[in-house]
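Shape is hard to put into words, and the shape of a protein is harder than most. The fold becomes a row of whole numbers, each drawn from a learned catalogue of backbone shapes. The outcome of that step, for a single protein, is printed below.
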Amino acid sequence: MSTESGKRRRKADGSPTRAQDPEGTKRNILEIASEEFALNGLSGARVDEIAARTRSSKRMIYYYFGDKEGLYLSALENAYRLVREGEAKLDIEGLPPIAALSRLVEFTFDHHHRHEEFIRMVMIENIHHGQYLDRSEMIRDLNVTAIDHIARIYARGVREGFFREGIDPVELHWQVSALCFFNVSNRATFSKIFGRDFGAEDQLERLRCNSVEMVVRFVTRSENLGE
């Protein structure tokens, strides 16, 4: 059997692998699978099509991910991982609370705009009533870190006298997510109904600024709003 780099081999148990970079192959599968699931949903996506678009085979996909539902759950976990990793990289600990919260909203808006497949996969998972997400301890852990992040910003703002008391960090996260999510999930229908391109650069910039202002005004004490 040839050992040439990149050619497919078989393990002793008959399962396929790659001579090099199995993690790269898995990342490639997840990237393409995310696109397919976001476009066609869990029932409409085809493993044959995913295999055809990747440097893998259907057998290899099943080896790595078990079955189609396992692949879907892994793609969903990867989508959440990407957004949470982006949040973790934000350099906002040294910023004043209002600036830190503003930066978090800006990041969320920009991430959702650049990763529309994440929004579509979340919409699909809601169609399934969160039943696959419920199987994932990873996603629960990832979202705990998201709440911890926004809770620290909010607590610091309250402590320093900028933010009003009594806001639940989970509900604050809900409001941020809602504003940024709707920008992607309902862009097409709003554009058609109101005859305005909500995906245009100038429109997106206004929506981004409005989202930041709405969240900041929601949490900031009235005497700190500068009015």
Notes: The radius of gyration is 21 Å. Residues 1-19 have pLDDT under 50 and may be disordered.
